[in-house]
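Ticket #4471: complex job returned nothing on first submit. Input attached below:
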Amino acid sequence: MKHLGFSGEEILETIGMVRQEKLDIRTVTIGISLFDCVADDCATLCDNIHAKVTRIARDLTKTSAEIAREFGIPIVNNRIAVTPVSLIAGRCGPDEMIRIAQTLDRAADDLGIDFIGGFSAHVEKGTTAIDKALITALPEALAATKRVCASVNVGSTRAGLNMDAIGLMGRTVKAIAAATAQSESIGCAKLVVFCNAVEDNPFMAGAFHGASESDCVVNVGVSGPGVVLRAVEEAGDVDFGALTAVIRGTAFKITRAGELVGRAAAARLGIPFGIIDLSLAPTPAERDSVARILEAIGLEGVGTHGSTAALALLNDAVKKGGAMASSYVGGLSGAFIPLSEDAGMIEAAERGTLTIDKLEAMTSVCSVGLDMIAVPGDTPAETLSAIMADEAAIGMINRKTTAVRIIPVAGKRVGDTVNFGGLLGRAPIIPVHTQSSARFVARGGRIPSPLQALIN
Amino acid sequence: MPQTAKDLSGRAIVTIIGSDRVGIIAGISAVIAEAGVNILDISQSVMRDFFTMIMMVDLSASDVSFDDLRERLSRKGAELAVKVEIEREEIFKAMHRV
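Support reply: We reran it on our side without changes. The output follows.
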């Protein structure tokens, strides 16, 4: 077609990506600074927060729907990320922190958005009274709200690991599981424990609007495991160089689509465009799976030997394609391996080929970490802390973001399954090591920041 | 990359996918003409086992909104038992051209 400059094949490829391979914009996330909401008392603070969030994001859902229709790509979630609450809550105590969480929830509800993130604290070097109040409020705050997501950064390459905070977070996760015991301990699915958290991540539950960000910004998260799976399958048994090229090319196309949508959303909302985060974020739909990509690369089942290497290749190729496609790639950008949200991962965990140890190894070469892992309800708090410490150590040493989103489901044992519903999916309870880490965690203090020279 | 609504070209791609029958082009073209939308180019072929028609149209002179046109096309498509979609051309440019 002379007017087009592209072929019918290319047009149909794009349409096929959306229709058959479930390419979607996972989220349009508006980041909003709450620094100018600060007030002397909690009631005024809450009023200011509600007013600012609902003013800036008032057209978010309408605009997303409009853009999705015009460009033919579904936008699955609309989200908001705010300044970490610990930075703007002044002298609020735990009860007032719960009120702030409820205010965020109400704002999200009024706007009709899916999630609001930023009920967060950064304690990698030390914990202030306000950080402590926020963490203390977590069980009730997450039980009393539906759309609020929380995160706590407990370590970084520059600061080391705050083991006191990691000890506290193990106990806190247990308390959240108990507070939401009636609904499969789902509160834990809304909390991420980070090392090296990033400030512009649009994906939940770990999104927040970092202190160095501008007043407001539009960040976009694109997904597309199904599209990559199809491309890998069509490539057949080519060698790794050719395979990388296929994945890179696919990631390029997905990222470009995401950037177009992001820029259109930013322009129509009158908010600056921030970054595009290209992450292969699976959903429970059968082919929308990172595990299936690894299997298409040549593994009989994910979790078997070769899984870490295959994931490393996938993650790197995705980043290369994304970085070529857009000047402003940010957030996490890589492959996610959330257990409960990926049909192939669930199957492998049920089969027993995918264990928590293999998952941990895989997180050292992909974005994020132990994500949406359901473990027995009687797992000791110290064991949860030790799992967080292991994961944070991987992030600290390798200068990357790692995260733990673990759910010790109240009353459940290995072999049981829990259903979280929607994008959160269904998780088999997987075993953890039963030998105690209590003495290790009880030491307290900090694991010092690592040497970043003498690296040969 | 277009920054604002003004940067959009106003061109869009209409795809019609389904099994061949009499009156498809006539039916869809009539909807497009009624909306004051200009057809710039048409191609048809069998691709990926589907009978496929692709049209490039120009909406810039039309006073029918994008959403409204999309609705009308999809209604006509349902009548003709084919799947009709319309997307702005920018999405294809973004994905397939460096």
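The radius of gyration of chain B is 14 Å. Closing as resolved unless it happens again.
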